[in-house]
Amino acid sequence: MPAGNILVADDDAAIRTVLNQALSRAGYEVRSTSNAATLWRWVSQGEGDLVITDVVMPDENAFELIPRMKKLRPELPIIVMSAQNTFMTAIRASERGAYEYLPKPFDLKELIGIVGRALSEPKDKPRNAARPEEVDQIPLVGRSAAMQEIYRLLARLMQTDLTVMITGESGTGKELVARALHDYGKRRGGPFVAINMAAIPRDLIESELFGHEKGAFTGANTRSTGRFEQAEGGTLFLDEIGDMPMEAQTRLLRVLQQGEYTTVGGRTPIKTDVRIVAATNKDLRILIQQGLFREDLFFRLNVVPLRLPPLRERAEDVPDLIRHFFMLAEREGLPRKQIDPAALERLKKYPWPGNVREIENLARRLAALYPHEVITLPVIEAELTQPAVTPEIDTTAPDNLSAAVERNLARYFAGFPDGLPPPGLYHRILREVEHPLLTAALTATRGNQIRAADLLGVNRNTLRKKIRDLDIQVIRTTT
């Protein structure tokens, strides 16, 4: 471990003591202070090999001091710690050239590891340039440990062009994260262009992505620019990437490999300069196994994987989120609302199947429909316990597959005490359906796997693999 002199600045004496002891045990010399003026004097005199500083100091904010320290000593690593554990704290720390950001409370072993890495790195390694303008909006809300990890990762990604794959359930805020990567990144001066693969007809996706020439197909009366061209110099957000058809996946892979594309009906290659951010609520590895997603494209897109946790995994963020959405509703002209502690506790215990989108809708509904300024527990109970609307099945109508599945699922759910089966239901049901479906297709085609694959709409190799995995007996007949 490299030797070094560490300068610590925090107005909390207890924190300074803990840091002094931990760093001293690790073999470092430590000097600590409770104010920014002393820290600046030490740095300006050339003292210290690394700085650890809190953001809020009694005489000056560290975000105002860090640019001066970096200008005077660009090679000096600065670790920022803060109890203001917001997305913008992490971003400001990164923009002002901090080596690392640590939300309080943090693990001392992690801190010692970061100090060791910082002192071991070459001193001439370029750091991120500071961004002078302040931002006045918080794109992401939450102070939970899960969100802190996301903030730290985003801060590291802001000054890069690395491709990012965002995964998470519907309503977790995948597009918000993509926009934050753009708005606070090096391409913020360029356009942010989003395209939802699930919302575009399959035969139009290539035209939407790459544009088309006049006369390329019926109805193409003029030349049209695609999303790649529109996003030139900026960020292209490919939402619901798991719904992209195979043929479009092949063209996208070629673009990512070669850095150029041709329009539909065009012949001249067009160079592209865009940052790709993709998102999905599906497990792409399962789609790969099913032959529905290209593995080579997955690895091209999954350079930096970023998983957004569902709201039930960060229930401690619910109070911040409900207050944030109440504030947004008030700005839009809805009545001001507050919420009492008992109601907040009830919200924290709710599983939030719709995630952040669901809590946003609830906040707007509460602001619009209830006259009380303070939302109480009975109001929340009434909102969260509204019976689900379950359509009645017309038993006189002809039976179909959908109705039969619906009835069986209703009985299956009712077989559990709380009406909720164990997690993993989606893939468990698919596995149960897959065996009879493949068996039926093979039976209908008299065991002809080529015809069965065509009937199912899957690759023949995929079908063969599933036959092996599911141990399906195939009997070929000619009659």
TrEMBL record:
Entry's localization field: Cytoplasm
Function summary: Member of the two-component regulatory system NtrB/NtrC, which controls expression of the nitrogen-regulated (ntr) genes in response to nitrogen limitation. Phosphorylated NtrC binds directly to DNA and stimulates the formation of open promoter-sigma54-RNA polymerase complexes.
Keyword Cell membrane in annotation: no
Cross-referenced SMART domains: AAA, REC
Response regulatory domain: residues covered: 5-119
Pfam families for the chain: AAA_lid_14 (PF25601), HTH_8 (PF02954), Response_reg (PF00072), Sigma54_activat (PF00158)
Sequence positions bearing 4-aspartylphosphate: D54
Name of the protein in its database record: DNA-binding transcriptional regulator NtrC
Keywords, in A-Z order: Activator, ATP-binding, Cytoplasm, DNA-binding, Nitrogen fixation, Nucleotide-binding, Phosphoprotein, Repressor, Transcription, Transcription regulation, Two-component regulatory system
This protein's GO CC annotations: cytoplasm
Organism of origin: Pseudorhodoplanes sinuspersici
One GO molecular-function entry: ATP binding
Gene Ontology biological process: regulation of DNA-templated transcription; regulation of nitrogen utilization
Domain Sigma-54 factor interaction span(s) in chain numbering: 140-368
Gene name per UniProt: ntrC
Listed InterPro entries: AAA+_ATPase, AAA_lid_NorR, CheY-like_superfamily, Homeodomain-like_sf, HTH_Fis, P-loop_NTPase, Sig_transdc_resp-reg_receiver, Sigma_54_int
